[in-house]
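Quick illustration, no need to memorize.
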Amino acid sequence: MGLYIQILMLVITGIILLWIGYSLFFGPISPFYSGFFSWGSWRKREDIKGEPGDPQVCPVCSIRMIKGELVKSVAFPSLSGGRDRLMYIKGCFSCLVDDVPRHCPVCGAPLSIDDFLVSRMFERVGRNNHVHVLGCNRCKRVCS
């Protein structure tokens, strides 16, 4: 009987240690925690729609992004040495993974996963950068 109690105590202690380790590495106090899987992020799709051009709204699918969520993009160096750069925007996590309709905010054409938006990024000192969307890779006719 004593052996079974010792084994049970070891199993309970192991489960508690695994839970503490998981909380330390993947919980809210962890430096690796991105907040994506927090309870506030599980919202209905109709609750998170925004207007194109608003802050924290994806320009491709118009879904309001969660704090810390980024848009996948590529910014090229400025050829003139100025503070404006050419930038390709692929979309947010919802655009690229979920089945969310993607549209160009300029011409309104539906976009596939391989399409991107062409934009200009203006770097501003002491403030956030400003991004101006020029159109998609179809209506701007850029080389891909």
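Helices lie at 2-26, 93-97.
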